[in-house]
Amino acid sequence: MKPAPFEYIAPNNLDEALIAMEVNGFDGKLLAGGQSLIPVMNFRLAQPAVIVDLNGVTELDFIRPNPGGGVTIGALTRQSRLEHDAIVRDRVPLLHATIPFIAHPQIRNRGTIGGSLAHADPAGELPVLSVALQARFKLQRYDKERWVNATDFYQALFMTALEPQEIMTAIEIPPLPPRTGWAFQELARRHGDYAQAGVATLIALDDDGVCTYARLVFLNVGEIPMVATEAAQLLVGERISAESITAVVNHAIQHEIEPTSDVHASADYKRHLAGVLTKRAIRQAANRVTS
Amino acid sequence: MTTRQFGKRVKRNEDPRLLTGQALFVDDVDLPNMAHMAFVRSPHAHARILAIDTSAALEVEGVVGVYSAESLGDYWQHGPLLVSPPPVKDIIFNQRTQVPLAKGKVRYAGEPVVCIVAESRYIAEDAADLVYVDYELLDAVVDCEAGTKPDAPQVYDDLELAFSHLNNVNAHVVQIKGDGANFDAIAAQAAHIIKRRFYYDHGASAPMETRGIVADWDRRAHRLTIWDTTQAPVFIRNGMAAFLGLSENQVRVIAPLIGGGFGPKIMMFYPEEMLAPWLSMKLNRPIKWIEDRSEHFVATTQERDQIHYAEMALDADGKILAVRDRFFHDAGAYAPYGLTVPLNSQCTLLGCYDIPAYHSTFTSVFTNKPIVTPYRGAGRQHGVFVMERLLDIAAREMGIDKAEIRRRNFIQPDQFPYNNEIIFQDFAALRYDSGNYEPALDTVLERIGYHDFYESDARRLTEDGRLLGLGLVSYVEGTGIGPYEGARVQVQSNGRVSVATGIGTQGQGHFTSFAQIVADQLGVAVTDVDLVTGDTDQFHWGAGTFASRGAVVAGNAINEAARDVRDKILKLASEKLEVADADLELTGGTVRVKGVPSSAISLGQLAQEANPMRGAVRPGTEPGLESSNYFGPEYGATASGIHAMIVAVDPETFDVEILQYAVVHDCGAVINPLIVDGQIHGGVAQGIGNAFYEKLAYDSSGQLLSGTFMDYLLPTALDVPRMSVAHMETLSPLNPLGIKGVGEAGAIPVGPLFVQAVEDALHVTGIEILECPISPSRIWELVNLLS
């Protein structure tokens, strides 16, 4: 469990990092928190020729409130900072409440938001949240930059819109629509494990309790964060009831997720579990609207 | 008068050293000019080796040597059979033991094929990537029951079918108690018969410290020093001397502090253990190998599954009349540790119960998976699972309370010593020395709140809608088997007492428990006793730490040696003080005339006087206050226990949480309740892992699918509940201290306990769980199968 030989570059600022990636992007890898990269290198499943260590690029470690609501977060911001930050707590409570589900405190102390989003593990909480919250990512090269929506960023298993020379530098999370409740539900075998299934839910209700907006994004039941668009649409115009929830759950788990079996759980169980969690999440999110 | 230390909750002598990082572990050994080993391991479970090309690896800068089976010459040999087959009539036993590097064929994924020595582990692993091995793939034997079919692939080409129809047989053993051979006739008269197929899987020991070895040949002194994570250093020393053509006193094996043993670190003569010393002598430099975590899942022995077809005949009162069991045991690719695991399953199945007739047959089957040898519990879990599940099912079908059916079948106090007639792992008849099971049951029922729990259905539901279930399981553990251990006890000139014993230590608290025994004999403080274990230059007789025998066998040997020293102290002091032995007492590190503090001579002073610089040591006497002595029990002492737990099951996700856990345990006289509690806690934690989290999952080609800690789930502190532990002390008559072993106890009953509790929580669904481990996914499937 020793990595293959590699060259190590430690830029001190973003410009240096971007230049390093221009030169080495095709056979190099960015090192952020290292919580996924180091193990796969030690197993020699990944053998990058060059490691560009972002940890000296401290300008990417920030949390900023946006004027119109929402926040912008630097990609190198540690997950533990998100967990304890008042701006995140007040402006993106779903993100704040979900961080403790990510692994363990020691891992969150190292792991970064950008690292997790770019690694694109379908069982990761942050990619699912970014899609649920309709975040967008700033992807930079030395001489250009672009913003990509989270929903477009995730393309296939561990495959994203990120070009080899690009660095994800910032994450912009827009404010939630008014009267929106939120919930995150997952079930892991042990606390801190990748969940067997999970779901992030947003529900907006009008004064009469009729749903005006719903969003359901699933974790670890497909190659990427799975958005149940049709199922969510079934709830719009309806009140939250056992019947409306059942209709949403059934449609989502039958048509909009694609779980596979692994050593911990069968695909059928994950499908069932996703349904149970969705039911609970919709109720919890709806309760948060009124409370 | 010094108070007795035996039985007190004394804090551990070794902890300051361990907790401040001052202890020596094998990986701390760093010698000048040391080279490092790495291995090319088979990626396939079953294949022929057609060609090996090491040329590219040899060209890597920093590579010292590359070795295959051919390069080992005459040193290439099968490992020893560590435990011979038991003296059971008509036994079939086919001996197949591991080799240092595969030759001709690989038999499990992870088997070492090529060994690389390099200036660093990094370079060695780089070179290993460049070795090319050409394999011809063969179908693998993965399932032990299917592996016995005549058309199954053959792990050994030369192994013939047993009884003309059983393939891949490592062993076939039939044991009978009483009228067990006539099970059918007994069953024909019985009021009730239970008959089921059971599956029990037990996993990897996963110690905090993986295996490791450093070997250092000193060509000037002609001595070989081996630091090894072994539980049996004396055995390793003697074996390595023989393999390398050295005298035993030319080899020193040091098993320093070890981060968990649990069985697989016993004297296995693993490939890495065989190669490092040989390479050190060949290359004239120290050689180091530290097993990494991914190697551990394939390179260290494990336990695995058994499939049981079991029947129980009962009378109308729920008294067991007879049990018949036929099971398949997965031995893995090689079987160096004989039949200890399946034999333990066969014997321990009988449990705390008075079973007049028993018929048990097992087939141990070679498969294309890593080697199976004892891991904490050592097959006992499998047997306990079958017996306890049979009783649970009988209780339910016959409408008898599950505590009551156990009570009715317990062996009674006046039946001890109780003879189960069949042959146990120590090759003695399976006899229980002592026991008292009913009071233990009453205590555990009270501690878990058994009667209240079943009084009303309201107790069966949590506020958040989860279903509650209760489990109750009893078990015995055969412990403290021979052959013997020894110890040397010596009073030093500074008044401290040194003790050396041949067993290894892996966290059991030997530095404290053994010190307590010595402290009582010599009247010194526990902290004034210094213990050395696992250094063959300090003590070179004994067997090792396994089978829950350290305290029983080495503890009693230390007691014997300490008593000898006590006699020497009294004899010398009586001469000095001119009083009779009987008028002396040992207290506070001194010997004195009873009740006369002014007469005291310190033990250090006395030790100096026992080693005079003038005058002669008289014929028939020895210098110093020192003695070596030995202890070997006639047969093993039988410990026992009853565990109970309450679980909450989510009726939709089927996730399970353990809410309450109670243990009543009886290991005879308890030397240190703090340490025994810790043994129970750790054992239960491993048992919980076995029941609900850990699973060595293999695909149909024999590839391990759960070879990391991301997939092989160990219970964490969050998953292990607080336990209420009570000790009962039914003394063993087999040793002067009256103790029984406790090392494996905690781990043994948890599988059936957990399964029973989950089944109880879900009783309205009617599910019957006949397998272990289980998971939320599997429970959901079982519930779904019914609807």
Task: Describe, in plain words, how this protein is organized in 3D.
The complex is a heterodimer of chains A (291) and B (787). Chain A folds into three domains: 7-56, Uridine Diphospho-n-acetylenolpyruvylglucosamine Reductase, domain 2 (2-Layer Sandwich); 58-173, Uridine Diphospho-n-acetylenolpyruvylglucosamine Reductase, domain 3 (2-Layer Sandwich), CATH 3.30.465; 180-290, CO dehydrogenase flavoprotein, C-terminal domain (Enolase-like, domain 1, 2-Layer Sandwich), CATH 3.30.390. In chain A, 36% of the residues lie in helices and 24% in strands. In chain A, helix 10 (229-235) runs antiparallel to helix 11 (242-255) and helix 11 (242-255) packs antiparallel against helix 12. Chain A contains twelve helices and 14 strands. Chain A is of the alpha+beta class and 291 residues long. Chain B has 787 residues and is α+β, with helices and mostly antiparallel strands. Chain B is built from 18 helices and 30 strands. In chain B, the strands form seven sheets. Chain B has a seven-stranded mixed beta sheet with strand order 3-6-1-13-10-11-12, with helices on both faces. Chain B is globular and about 90 Å long. The model of chain B has no long low-confidence stretch (mean pLDDT 96). Classes of the chains: A alpha+beta (291), B alpha+beta (787). Chain A binds chain B through residues 1-2, 4-5, 43-44, 187, 189-194, 196, 262-266, 268-270, 272-273, 276-277, and chain B through 121-122, 125-126, 129, 292-295, 652-653, 655, 693, 695, 697, 705-706, 710-711, 713, 715-716, 718-719, 775-777, 780-781.
